[in-house]
Structures are given as C-alpha cells and as structure tokens.
Amino acid sequence: MITLTWWCRKSRNRNKDAIICDGAVRSGKTLCMGLSFVLWAFYRFRGMNFAICGKTIRNVKRNLVFEIVPILKGLGFTCELRHSENRLDIRIGSKVNRFYLFGGKDESSASLIQGMTLAGVLFDEAALMPRSFVEQALARCSVEGAKFWFNCNPEHPGHWFFTEWISKINERNALYLHFTMRDNPSLTKETIERYKNMFSGTFYKRFVEGKWVKAEGLIYPFMNENMFFDVPQAPFEDFAVSVDYGTVNPTSMGLWGKKDKRWYRIDEYYYSSRENGVQRTDEEHYAALEKLVKDKKISYIVVDPSAASFITLIKKKGKYKVTAAENNVVNGIRLTSSALKEGKIRICRNCYSTIKEFGLYSWQNDNARDLPLKENDHAMDDIRYFTASINEKSPYENRIFAVVRR
C-alpha cells in the first residue's frame, strides 16, 4: 500500500524525492510501482513528459507496459502505444501525459535521453543499467515537483546502485521499501516453492531472500551426478550448436537436441591447444563442427561474439545459419542456473569436458563486482550462449495496443 500512496497529500512520505523498491523476484514491486508512477503523474501534472526505463525497450514493454495498461483501462484511462516513437500516451478526461520508453543496456544509451525535459522517471531493473544512463535520465528531470522511481533485484553489494542510493537513502531523501514474495498476494504457496527451487547459492540469496550478497564458491553448486542424463532416443524435434571459440584457450562446442520441449546437450567438441601442443585453424575447427553435426539439420549455431573470423567462415561456407551470442555474463549465468534447475536444458553424461567444468567453475573473490574465474569456463560459456538464445519471449511480446476510445 505504501508504494501506491507514498506521494499522496496526506502521506508522511510525500516530501521524499525518490522511492526505491528492491527484493525478491515475483514480489509485485514492478506492477505496484508502475501503476503508482502513472497515477502520481496524473495527480500532479498534465501535458508533461515522463520516462519509463528498462534494460531494453522490449523488457519495458513486456515487464511493465503490457501489465499496467489493462489495469489503467479498467480505471477509465485511454492508452495508445506509439511503437515507432516508443511512447505511451495516456489520457483521462481532458488530461494527457506522455511516457517515453527507453532501454539502458550500455554506456552509449545515455545519449538517447539527452535533451529531454522530464517531470519524472521510472527505472525498472535499475541495477541492470549503467550508472551513466541513470544519471543522465535523472538530470533530465528539471520540472518542479519531479520525482525518481527505482526498482530492482539485488546484485553485488559493491554495485554502484547499492553504494550510491540504497546505502545513502537519507542523503538522497529517498523512501526505501524491501519486498518479499509474500508481498505478492497472487502467488500461491506452490508457486513460491517453485520459484525457490529455481535458484541456488548466490542467486537464491539474491532473488528469493532479496539480499545484496557477494558471489562465492561454485557457480552451479547443485550440479551433482543426479543432474546428468543419458542421451534420449531419437527422434529429436530440433537441433542447434553453441560455440565458445579459442585459439590459445580451448574451443568448446555443444550439440543440442530438442525432445519433449527440453534441450539436451547430446554431444560435444572440446579442444585445448595447450593440452595437445598444437593450435588449430578456423578451417580445422569448422571441420570439427561438421563432424559433430554429421547429417543433422541444424536450426542455428550461436557463437562467442568475439570470434569474428570463425563467424565469418561459417557464413562464407553457407551451410549453417550462425548468430553472435548475447554475452552478458552474470545474467547468462542466472538464466542458465534457472534453466538447469527447471529442466529446460539437460546435460548428457557423454559430455565429459562439460561435466568436469561444472565441478570447477567458481566465482572470483572480488569485492567490487561479480566475476567468474577465467578458467574452466569454456563449455560453461557456450552453454550460457545457448541458454540466452533460447530464453523464452513473453507471450505478450507481439501484442499491439491501439487507441481505446471510451
């Protein structure tokens, strides 16, 4: 309730400049904050510009816009999402406000929001955005009475958002609220248990317990002998390959087969020039790729984005569709951890090098950020690339909003 009403005239928090909501996944903070942000905008302003920011514009639409618009319509608002302008126009009676959608995926994103004048900004998943983007957006809020809205899941306690905002809530004149899954009345006990089972280790402490903790120990501590499987019998529904390319470092390739809506790592190629004493060329690795695939029809190959020459060679050969991988390391590890625990991907027992790496892949002892040790990570990287490539899109992804006339 505080999230929805902190800005109201009779609230003791009405003079705060910002609100910060952090905590567990699926705790309801995004929906509460998004709805409150729009209601506050209409309570305080008319004809003004606001910003709603996420890691990407796709994420903003999926996580926030597509969730709050039906509720706003039920409250009597008219909503129009202008896709070409990445703008959501909201109207009630004679009042109209404009909400621009921004993605803050990297340092270059700060330039996208320059030059605007805003009456308020909401950051969804603030800890996933670069500091430069957030600070540029805050600098745009020059309208009298503007306020800042942040929500996020916890990260490393050395993260800039924790040190500069959560640790300084009094200096920032910010209201800080911590959410747990119990704060979301729509979650049943069974659903909460399912989410608890999705995470382990550091990610459990962050996304279930909602704690800002340092990453320590094995990255996938749950990968014991019960988490490896025999290769399923054919037929398979689909095939794909993931590649982490190395010259001095090992090259790792995984062959994936889809069966009964799960992806199995059914075979692998792992070559270390250090161990073998001979460095292989792009052509030799390509020949190994063909040997791994054999006569299977491959939907696509996802490759380490830094392996430009190998990607170019695959394209030149024209036999397989190839794409550069998404390479956000920590987010990729989180996705992989969840996919393994949920059984969306499974590792087969014949992938010996992969199994070996699972037992060794660990976090660095770093006090400033999350970093895996740069060793025993080659199969781990190609699995991460693959998992990011199959990360399911929201069923709302292609929904189109038209003007709703009342």
Mean pLDDT: 92
Task: Summarize the amount of helix as a percent range.
Answer: 25-40%
What is the structural class?
Answer: alpha/beta
**Strand order of the biggest β-sheet:** 3-4-5-2-6-7-1-8
Strand content: 15-25%
How many H/I helical runs? 13
Report the biggest beta sheet as strand number plus sense, adding barrel if it closes: 8 strands, mixed
Give the N-to-C terminal Cα separation: 29 Å
Q: What does the radius of gyration come to?
A: 24 Å
- Reading the helices and strands in chain order gives HEHEHEEEEHEHEHHEEEEHHEHEHEHH
Number of strands: 15
Q: Give the overall shape.
A: elongated
Uncertain runs: 392-406
Structure description:
With 406 residues, the protein is α/β, with parallel strands linked by helices. The chain is 32% helix and 22% strand. The chain has 13 helices and 15 strands. The protein starts with a helix and ends in a 16-residue tail after the last helix.
Outline the fold blueprint.
Elements lengths: L1 H4 L12 E6 L5 H16 L4 E6 L2 H18 L3 E5 L4 E6 L2 E9 L16 E5 L6 H9 L7 E6 L7 H5 L9 E6 L9 H10 L2 H7 L20 E2 L8 E7 L6 E9 L2 E10 L1 H4 L5 H12 L6 E4 L4 H10 L4 E3 L4 H14 L2 E4 L3 H7 L19 H13 L16
Parallel strand pairs: 1-7, 1-8, 2-5, 2-6, 6-7, 9-15, 10-13, 12-15, 13-14
Antiparallel strand pairs: 3-4, 4-5, 10-11, 11-12
Helix pairs in contact: 2-3, 11-13
Summarize the structure.
The protein has 406 residues and is α/β, with parallel strands linked by helices.
